[in-house]
Write the structure tokens for this entry.
Amino acid sequence: MKSIETLPQVTASHLVKSVDLNHHGTLYAGRMAEWVVETGFMTARSALKCSPSNLVCVRLHGMSFRKSVQCGETLVLKGQVAHVGRSSLSVRVVANLIDADDATPYPTEGYLTFVYVVGGRAAPHGIDVVPPESPEARRWWDHIVNERQR
Ligand SMILES: CC(C)(COP(=O)(O)OP(=O)(O)OC[C@H]1O[C@@H](n2cnc3c(N)ncnc32)[C@H](O)[C@@H]1OP(=O)(O)O)[C@@H](O)C(=O)NCCC(=O)NCCS
């Protein structure tokens, strides 16, 4: 069994351009959601080392937009595996400004669940992990488990 912390993380950067804005002139939530899903997908694929055709997204959960993002900013999205099931894998993605310091809260956080599929049906992905020990990673793991029960 692997430690969840050893699974690969993925980082993706985006420059916020005028095409990405909403009617307030700040980053459109739909665009941010798209970037979060993309980062989550790449993280899940990287962890499973599978073909894109074997991976589908089944859930977006707990996506928060805490701060507006201005045109011209660069966002850095980081994806990290938060939970591993039999055929599913859930990823936590956070987005932060490229020049934010550690004390600045990140504008966006989201969790996504992907399922490994073969012939359009869920199938075991073959990754076994032990639940995380660090309190922070354990909180993310428990968040996914609690969400699934709803
Ligand atoms: C992926 C899919 C084939 C799974 O269907 P299924 O065979 O009924 O799935 P199961 O009930 O066996 O669940 C498979 C796994 O996904 C998890 N899962 C399923 N739905 C979930 C949900 N809404 N939220 C979180 N986890 C979910 C289950 O807990 C299970 O996890 P585990 O194997 O790690 O224990 C089916 O849901 C599907 O095709 N969905 C559409 C995906 C898609 O098109 N995505 C693009 C969105 S536009």
The mean pLDDT is 94. The pocket of coenzyme A is lined by residues 56-59, 85-88, 113, 115, 117, 121-122, 148 (CB under 6 Å).
